[in-house]
Amino acid sequence: MNVTRATYIRAIGYMGLIASALSIALILFADLTVAGNDMVADTISAMAAGERYWYADAGIYALAFAFAVLGLGMAAVHPGGLFWSFATFGYTALGGLIFLIGFRNEYGDSDAETGEVVHFSLVVILGIIMAITAWCSIRGTRELAQNLSARSITLASIWTIGAPAFFILPTGYDGLYERGLGLVAIAIAATMAQVLLTNEKR
Questions:
Q1: Which residues, other chains included, contact 170 with Cβ-Cβ below 8 Å and sequence gap of 6+?
Q2: What's the CA gap between 56 and 45, in Å, rounded?
């Protein structure tokens, strides 16, 4: 079967949108069904720890897939410039980081999980790469889908300002705040999916 470039990019755009929506749906379902979960105090990855509620992890993996596949689409529509190249690699890296955060639920808290405690380091790296990637993608977004550039700037600003505050919040409220940041991350991915789809309609 001969798949055209346009078909390939549209497929990636729709996969990015569907995976982003699926991530929201699965995490919300987990919030409503995981026994003992407090969505205000408990972080998403803490809620997903263990094997009983597999769909909580699946929500994290769906977002990881969205970022990873969008990186492929961004490479296909590369408008030129170093910033877009950084953003393309950034999306791919974010896909891997989000997957690892969901996969390695060990916090050093003597629960059922064992192994190296890498969660905090991965989250810090994720926050930094997300900010850099969001800003690096703005110029290319303006060239490919100008109507989405203002939204990209807004989301990059919210993440850059809001993400560091997560690390100083009281643990009684960080779960709700993290969910807000999660929605920002999902919006960043969904916006890039729209960039790909908009570019192919031009």
A1: none
A2: 8
Buried b (16+ CB within 10 A) or exposed e, 48-68: bbeeebeebbbbbbbbbbbbb
The closest of 128, 180, 131, 182 to 153, measured between CA atoms, is 131
CA dihedral 71, 161, 121, 35 (to 10 degrees): -90
Which token pair is 129?
């790469």
DSSP designation for 170: -
Q: Is residue 109 very low, low, confident or very high in pLDDT (cuts 50, 70, 90)?
A: very low
DSSP assignment letter at 146: G
Instruction: Note the Cα 84 to chain centre separation in Å.
Output: 18
Query: Cβ of 143: how many Cβ atoms within 10 Å?
Result: 15
Helix, strand, coil shares of the chain, percent, nearest 5, are 75, 0, 25
Enter the tokens of residue 135: 């800003």
Q: How large is the angle between the packed helices 119-136 and 174-201, nearest 10 degrees?
A: 40
Take residue 11 and report the two structure tokens written for it.
């497929």
Query: 118 vs 28, 96, 108, 114, CA distance in Å?
Result: 25, 14, 9, 11
Query: What is the model's pTM?
Result: 0.90
Cβ–Cβ under 8 Å, residues 77 and 144:
yes
Q: What pLDDT band is residue 201 in, cutting at 50, 70 and 90?
A: low
Question: First and final CA of the chain: distance in angstroms?
Answer: 25
Would you say the C-alpha torsion 86, 80, 159, 165 has a positive or negative sign?
positive
